[in-house]
Write a structure and sequence with these properties.
The structure holds 2 protein chains of 2 kinds. Chain A contains 11 helices and 10 strands. Chain A is of the alpha/beta class. Chain A folds into 2 domains: about 160 residues, P-loop containing nucleotide triphosphate hydrolases (Rossmann fold); about 70 residues. In chain A, the strands form 2 sheets. Chain A has a 6-stranded mixed sheet, sandwiched between helices. The termini of chain B are far apart. The chains are: A alpha/beta, B mainly alpha. At the A-B interface, helix 2 and helix 4 of A face helix 5 and helix 6 of B.
């Protein structure tokens, strides 16, 4: 059974169709990339999994149960969420940002500290240097690392990542992508990853779903995507030609 | 009663007028403002009404309330109600602006982490809005210290008693006996709250 399932999902707001009849499945331990241009509806689709948005029609299921049937809080505690600017809380330290979900879950402080140390190391930040810092004292890449550590804190089986590396410079972005691959091997999570960058999609995705104007144009492995002939897939593939020219 | 002890006792009354009215304004305004951050449509007209109250000249508002039973009448109670009405706007407006001004990504993250509405409010929204909220409180307190001098016109007491007495007798010294302590009070409150504002800014 699929881990996350979109079943004829549509979303309409202010008379505009953002998503139309989306059918898509994410399996356990898979990274499914939602690729699309700005306004294609990929972020909207992502935000339905943790109930930040509700579909106008159709159903989203997480772990076999409709999202609308889940207790919102319980559902969200089982899903890590990483966004472009990190979404870190500026008024608390890195350590408390990372330890926040465990704290909400009522873990004892010693266990929270141990987990925080482990995760900062896992994302390549030395706890001695970074634990006591505030988000404004971090670079863009460091913020994203903390954001990922925070999302992993309570060991959720699913990660939602919304263009987490889009605002980083190309070198940092590459480092973070490699790091993400390593984390995925080490932690074995399912992930839905939103991006508008084909290179990133090819590098990170087990499968890629291409969205265009609220519809899914194709779903396939990176290899299949490279040979896709649909018009919007070709638009994306052209960006690779330009970069290698 | 000596002049100095008169100053002390009217200053004390003044502090009570300001303290009580600002406390009422916070008690009423803060929960209302928090509710308004979640209701776009109600927000516009509620803040509109509070805004209109603010534009009524204070002496006129005292006059309007005088004949109204229960809330009105001569004395401290009417004065405190009027002052509280004036303090509402800066407190509510800054609270609304402060909370709505939080980066959407931060609030989204808080919700996505599985915080309850209450946890988002107390752990994220209020701490991040605190400098703005304190700025509103500062404006409310400083302006109430000034407006409270008018309270003496309806028997509310406070440092305004000197000012009205001094005007009636054309005695500058008596006017200053009310005005200078009130001004000092405002300056001290301003400094203390400005420090707090800086202290809590992220």
């Amino acid at each position: 059974m699929a881990f996350v399932e979109f079943d004829h999902v549509s979303y309409r707001i202010d008379g505009r169709d953002i998503l139309r009849d989306i059918d898509l499945q994410l399996d356990h331990n898979e990274t499914l990339v939602l690729l699309g241009r700005s306004g294609s509806g990929k972020t909207t689709l992502l935000r339905m999994v943790n109930a930040l948005l509700r579909p106008t029609s159709g159903d989203v299921r997480f772990d076999g149960k409709s999202v609308s049937a889940w207790d919102e809080i319980a559902l969200r505690r089982r899903i890590g969420y990483v966004i472009q600017d990190g979404g870190l809380f500026p008024h608390i330290t890195v350590a408390r940002n990372v330890g926040l979900v465990p704290e909400l879950e009522g873990w004892p402080q010693a266990k929270i500290d141990a987990r925080m140390t482990e995760l900062l190391q896992a994302v390549g930040l030395s706890p001695e240097t970074y634990a006591a810092r505030y988000p404004k004292q971090l670079s863009g890449g460091e913020k994203q690392r903390v954001g990922i550590a925070r999302a992993l804190a309570a060991d959720p089986p699913l990660l939602l990542l919304d263009e987490p590396f889009a605002a980083l410079d190309p070198v940092t972005r590459y480092d973070m992508q490699q790091h993400f691959l390593k984390l995925r091997r080490d932690f074995g999570k399912a992930a839905l990853f939103v991006t508008h960058d084909l290179r990133e999609a090819l590098l990170l995705g087990s499968r890629i779903a291409l969205l265009h104007e609220g519809r899914i144009e194709l779903v396939g492995t990176p290899r299949e995507f490279l040979h896709a002939t649909s018009p919007h897939a070709r638009d994306f593939l052209r960006t690779l030609d330009l970069e290698t020219a | 009663m000596s002049f100095a002890s008169e100053i002390a006792s009217y200053s004390g009354e003044h502090v009570v007028l300001v303290g009580a009215s600002v406390a009422i304004a916070i008690a009423v305004g803060a929960p209302t403002a928090i509710a308004l951050t979640r209701h776009v449509h109600t927000r516009r007209w509620v803040l509109g009404v509070v805004n209109v109250i603010q534009t009524i000249p204070s002496l006129a508002l005292f006059g309007v309330l005088l004949p109204i039973p229960f809330v009105g009448g001569i004395g401290k109670r009417t004065a405190i109600i009027v002052l509280a009405l004036y303090a509402l706007l800066p407190i509510m407006r800054n609270m609304v602006v402060g909370i709505l001004g939080i980066e959407p990504g931060v609030r989204d993250s808080a919700l996505a982490m599985g915080m309850t509405r209450q946890q988002v409010l107390w752990r994220v929204e209020i701490p991040l809005a605190l400098p703005t909220i304190l700025a509103g409180l500062r404006i409310a307190i400083v302006s109430t210290i000034g407006t409270a001098t008018v309270a003496a016109a309806i028997g509310g007491g406070g440092l305004g008693t000197f000012i009205f007495r001094g005007i009636a007798t054309a005695d500058l010294a008596t006017v200053l006996a009310g005005a200078i302590p009130a001004a000092l009070m405002a300056i001290v409150a301003d400094e203390v709250l400005e420090w707090a504002e800086r202290h809590y800014s992220v």
